[in-house]
Design goal:
Elements: H1 4-9, H2 12-20, H3 27-36, H4 49-58, E1 69-76, E2 86-95, E3 101-109, E4 112-119, E5 121-122, E6 126-133, E7 139-145, E8 153-161, E9 170-179, H5 185-188, E10 193-195, H6 199-208, H7 215-229, H8 241-253, H9 257-266
Helix pairs in contact: 6-7, 7-8
Length: about 270
């Protein structure tokens, strides 16, 4: 679902990318819309004063990608010792000097901080990365479904081989990235580790990320646990857009404490 602020402030290309994540829109139709708007094919309009103002309120700088930011990552634990629990990690997405997106993922495995990093590539509908682990030198593959703005929740699949495991089992699981508001990746390191698969505990993590506690966060906490642990009828480990959409709608309705402070300053 596209939010009203996004529809009001997005460029044609941003709107096109968002629509394309849900529908297969023919290029002929997009070309016709561009022509009606007086745009050249493949050339986005220059940002208007209104667009620049809205981008500033979002906390974006000129040229910044909307996926950039710091996230708390939640996924099912792969360790046999911690079976049935969740593992909390941190994710940071940023653009390098060549404006290529880079992603780093870090988690605490038995009191050792394990970091993985790589380039994040996107085809407009999904984003993928081959994360190189600095501890094991193994590759972990991350496949994400691109969310709509403001990208408070990103879902996908993480796959690789269990790190602390005598058989180095090949494994894959669902993973959710929850945007942290007003913090740095270093601020979340203390939160990394194992967590019981309990909606109330996930709700506490959301509060620590800056989301206001209310009835919606209670529902979101439970929804996150259900999403991560849901069995697949197809036999595949998959993260479907229709399963992610309800979680996106809930988190986008929950104002962050940072947003509430900014709203107060605007008034």
């Amino acid at each position: 679902m596209l939010t009203a602020p996004f529809l009001a402030s997005s460029s044609f290309d941003e709107f096109q990318d968002a629509i394309s994540t849900h529908f297969a829109v023919p290029e002929t139709a997009l070309s016709a819309l561009r022509s009606e708007a007086g745009l050249r094919s493949g050339s986005p309009p220059a940002p208007t004063v209104v667009e620049s103002s809205v981008a500033g309120r979002r906390g974006l700088h000129p040229g910044e990608h909307w996926l950039e930011g710091v996230y708390l990552a939640i996924s099912p634990a792969w360790s046999r010792v911690e079976a049935g629990r969740l593992i909390i990690g941190t994710v940071a997405i940023h653009a390098d000097t060549m404006q290529r997106l880079q992603i780093s993922y870090s988690e605490n495995l038995f009191n050792r901080q394990v970091r993985m990093s790589g380039q994040l590539l996107s085809d407009g509908r999904t984003a993928q990365s081959a994360l190189a682990c600095s501890y094991t030198q193994r590759l972990f593959l991350l496949a994400l479904n691109l969310p709509t703005l403001p990208a408070n929740l990103i879902g996908g699949i993480l796959s690789g081989a269990a790190v602390h495991d005598p058989d180095a089992r090949a494994a894959a699981c669902r993973i959710l990235l929850l945007r942290a508001h007003g913090g740095q990746a270093e601020d979340l390191v203390a939160r990394t580790g194992y967590l019981d698969a309990d909606g109330a505990l996930v709700e506490s993590e959301l509060a620590a990320l800056g989301y206001r506690r209310d009835a919606a966060t209670v529902a979101l906490g439970s929804g996150i646990v259900d999403f991560l642990n849901a069995p697949s009828s197809s036999g595949l480990c998959e993260a479907k857009l229709k399963d992610l959409a309800p979680l996106e709608r809930i988190i986008d309705r929950i104002p962050s404490s940072e947003f509430l402070q900014k709203s107060a300053s605007w008034h």
